[in-house]
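In the lab's daily routine, each protein ends up as an entry in a very long ledger. A line of letters takes care of the sequence, but it says nothing directly about the fold. The fold becomes a row of whole numbers, each drawn from a learned catalogue of backbone shapes. The protein below has been through that process, and both of its lines are reproduced in full:
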Amino acid sequence: MPTVHLLDYVAGNVRSLVNAIEKLGYEVAWIKSPEEIEHAEKLILPGVGHFGHCLSQLSAGNFLEPVKKHIEAGKPFMGICVGLQALFQGSEEDPNVPGLGLIPLRLKKFDDSDKSVPHIGWNSARTVQDGKLQQSNFYGLRPDSKYYYVHSYAVPYEAGLLEKEGWSVATAQYGEEVFVGALARGNVLATQFHPEKSGQAGLRVIGAFLSGQQIQVLDISPTDTRDGLTRRIIACLDVRTNDQGDLVVTKGDQYDVREKDGVSAGGQVRNLGKPVDLAKRYYQQGADEVTFLNITSFRNCPLKDLPMLEILRRTSRSVFVPLTIGGGIRDMVDTDGTKFSALDVATMYFKSGADKISIGSDAVIAAEEYYKRGKTLTGTTAIEQISKAYGKQAVVVSVDPKRVYVESPESTSHHTIKTAFSGPNGEDTCWYQCTIKGGREARDLDVRQLVQAVEAMGAGEILLNCIDKDGTNSGFDIELIRDVKAAVKIPVIASSGAGNPGHFAEVFEKTTTDAALGAGMFHRGEYTVNDVKTHLAERGFLVRKFETD
């Protein structure tokens, strides 16, 4: 098998990239020292997270000059995400850390006054000349394909500037900002998006780079060339052991996952399928992301043998979209007495195939401490440590609030909303109380306090559940979603209550939510992910189509 070399500098989830390369028929070899770069033919520099952290790691390891020499020697080089950013002079993310300087431009942060930042989701990468789509593209890019981006900083696109230096450029648009999505020149290909997480469209780009197919004459008629971020649909799998000790996907009603039909089921844990099989099914149906929520503690299991690690490894071999894992990301003591930090645990999940980790109950406790300290950060919370090491886009906070009705805003110290849904005594005011331990324990913290605290700590996304809506199939809590979206600038995923495709259209029409998540309606086979996307497309929403070639 031909060999591809990857530069290893703790770049987050590289497992999916390795799986993608191996799926395409190549063998992966790791660059462990600067001297080894000289012997590499095809070199890939992957990266996620903070520009300064990544470039500092490369500099400290003495990798920068050997990488430059590899490129100058005309050998194939591919940079992914921060690997693209490294080619430039520098970034606003860390002005004191220089890049490779091969391109004398700097990255800028997206304007968050009119949109969520980070930019997370599926967007375009297409070449345009004189306002028209080009009839040829580079490295397998297609004008109606969508690719997975996750970043806060980008290179603003100025028409003709890079092209004058011989670069082929593909752009994407986020809000009103047009930025560089990919660029190529000679032996160099770099993508701001993650091709290894971009389904078949991304595999096509990696395959074209590895085979040296630089220019592709388009033989297709694009069906939808609208630019911009698509509506993101996420399939969520709650994973736990059933009463026989097998790992199953289950779904509850207001977080109760046991059957309700008495004698016939005996109150057994609902078994809706096997995690890896269902994840692959939803990927093939067009899910934009897959989320695993571990709702079993596995207290007596050695950390290295956690079943969720194996689920991630197996899933990432055939599911080439982002994978999120939640549950158990905390400081812990292993069965042999060894202490592990939350960062250590997260690192194990990233190495096994996760792209993001989700933190729940521990985020609530951290937020309470944050307010006790007068909104002071310590740098020691799991959110802060993981965000610093892997970037804020890698940290999701899962929020489990429930409604508490009150007579008036003055009757509580918490942030309230006026609601169209009356309380048990006719109240038209409520606040959303945060809970921990799977909704079993309520805390004296409202949802707005929580999301603003974790945003300050470095969380990159909010997974917004709702205990009142969970399992009801009555639609998302629109009032809750609007309230949280108004409180933060980071992306929000709407969760809990989806029962049919119309509920997804409703939440996108009535809120500015960044993504929407479904579970039971998919697990029970009532609707597919594709059913949801077809419905959204019919309503005029931009969605990603699943590609098969």
Notes: The first helix runs from residue 15 to 23.
